[in-house]
Amino acid sequence: MREPLLPVPNTALAALVLVIILLAHSIYKDYQGFLMLGPGGTPSTFSGYLRITFLRLFVIRNPYDPTSLPMIMRPEPGFLSTRPDPLPYRSGPRPIVTGIAPQRQVTQRAAGSQFTMLASRIRAMALEHPSGLRLGTSCFEKHGTGLFSKWPQNRTCNGEICHAHPSDGSLHMTLHPQDARLVLERGWGERHPLAKGGWLTRFVPSCFVMVYAPRDADEVEVVMDIVRCAIWWVGGQSLPDSGETKPYDHPVLSSSHAKLSHS
Questions:
Q1: How far apart are CA 35 and CA 181, in angstroms?
Q2: Which terminus of the chain is less hemmed in, N or C, by CB atoms within 10 Å?
């Protein structure tokens, strides 16, 4: 007479089910965190989330570490570095920033009045200089308002100079490598996670930075000064504090400049 078969131990099966449950919970929380960042350059869908999850494999390791100046540009200075007092240091700690697309501040967000002031200043700048600047829907964000150069010297997304985020008050913009370095070193911003150059330029330029939200009126002035740097870099226009527009004749706005924009 054959002995009855003993039940197969289900410890391994139970462990597998537990792992699947924990993994599903972790993915769900991560997906909800992605949705909480609000609309951005990536659709707020699960397929958009999967795309961002894949791109996490290629993000820069240290967003505060500036990119090096390409050999084709040396020793060409940036817009800020030619001034006697280039940029003040930002007081206090940096805000906590998360996400890729969208990338947002989760602390030290701008008050509504500060963002209104910032957005008004950017809009006024475009209206004061219609020959070189225009407003339009952000090419990077796919919504919201962006500031564009009508005659871009450096390739960005349709000549976009910058855009501001109503949800937190921060901005994204493209800067000369030395200006980006100064912005990072003085505490005013950080590199976008995908700003590595190479094939990732299909998403953002190699000197694409987040500039932190201004916390008061004085910081709005500093941020607008950085916006002027982006206008010079992307559009080749120098906008002094007086508001007078003039072309900035600089060797960096040449064929070598175009090479960098494609790198």
A1: 31
A2: N
pTM over 0.90: no
Cα 122–Cα 123–Cα 124 angle in degrees, nearest 5: 90
Question: What is the DSSP track for the chain?
Answer: -PPPPPPPP-HHHHHHHHHHHHHHHHHHHHHHHHHHT-S-SS-SSHHHHHHHHHHGGG--S-TTSPPPPPGGGTT---SGGGSSS--PPPPSPPPPEEESSSEEESSSPPPHHHHHHHHHHHHHHHHH-TTTEEEEE-TTTSSSEEEEESS-SS--STTEEEEE-TTT--EEEE--HHHHHHHHHTTSEEE-TTTT-GGGGGTS-TTEEEEPPP-SHHHHHHHHHHHHHHHHHHH-EE--TT---EE---TTSSHHHHHHHT-
Question: In 2-33, which positions are buried (b, 16+ CB within 10 angstroms) versus exposed (e)?
Answer: eeeeeeeeeeeeeeeeeeeeeeeeeeeeebee
pLDDT by 10-residue block (mean), the chain, 263 residues:
59 84 86 83 86 91 84 70 85 95 94 94 94 94 91 91 95 95 96 93 93 96 95 86 43 41 41
The four Cα atoms 74, 78, 83, 89 give a dihedral, to 10 degrees, of -120
